[in-house]
Design a protein that fits this description.
There is one protein chain. The chain is an all-alpha fold. It folds into two domains: 1-38; 40-94, no CATH class. The protein is built from five helices and no strands. The chain has helices at 6-22, 28-33, 41-55, 64-78, 82-90. Helix 3 crosses helix 4 (64-78). The longest helix has 17 residues, at 6-22.
């Protein structure tokens, strides 16, 4: 393919190289048949469910550390791993 714009030509060449180098890893049909998520929709949905619903409540302000802490807690809760959080807080108390 011929592109007059050097930036576009370079990007296309990079894409072709990437696809050639990774063609053995690009198995979308196989992954889809196994029920794996292919697109970014599941990730965006998870982010909205786990993170945004908590962080974007009225009047809330977060710094980077606070955001990471609440994100970790929400992820543990939504992943049914809250017992691990309790172990960290309380030790190995049943």
């Amino acid at each position: 393919m011929h592109y007059e714009n050097e930036e576009i030509r370079s990007s296309v060449n990079d894409l072709v190289t990437y696809l050639e180098n990774n063609k053995d890893r690009i198995k979308y049909k196989e992954y889809n048949n196994k029920g794996y998520f292919i697109g970014s929709g599941a990730i965006k949905g998870g982010n909205k469910c786990v993170i945004q619903n908590r962080l974007k409540q009225a009047g809330m302000r977060w710094n980077k550390d606070g955001t990471q802490y609440i994100a970790s807690l929400r992820t543990a809760k939504k992943s049914n791993r809250w017992d691990k959080v309790k172990q960290v807080i309380y030790g190995n108390v049943g």
